[in-house]
Design goal:
The chain is mainly α. It has seven helices and no strands. The chain has a single domain, classed as Orthogonal Bundle (Cytochrome Bc1 Complex, Chain D, domain 2), CATH 1.10.760.
Length: about 130
Amino acid sequence: MKSLKKLSIIGALVFLLYSFTSFVQEEWIVPEKYEKMQNPTDKVDKENFAIGKSLYNKHCKSCHGKQGYGDGTKADEVEGDLGDFSTAEFQAQSDGALFYKTTEGRDDMPEYTKKMPDDEDRWLVVNYIRTLAE
């Protein structure tokens, strides 16, 4: 009887710990190759800006929101932190890191090599995300 009680307590503790860790998102490690990657696109070109905004609205806005606050129409369906693109902390990431995260994805964030197979398109989205800074 004592061993059943101990097993029940251990089981409950394991369940609680597992439940807690599912709310805490692990740090997103970006390979050094991407951290140092330079953005090859013209960041101030108006046509590039329009393309980046259009791609963001098509592929990103539903989760990340119009202003990048993580408050899009599908945000409640996503587990984990969607980030707030307007914060200094978010904007401190390198362009290469943002490109990597957009390209590879993780968890509920899909990878975008199929939806946006052209690397330049993903770079233009990175450029647009930069305009969402406060």
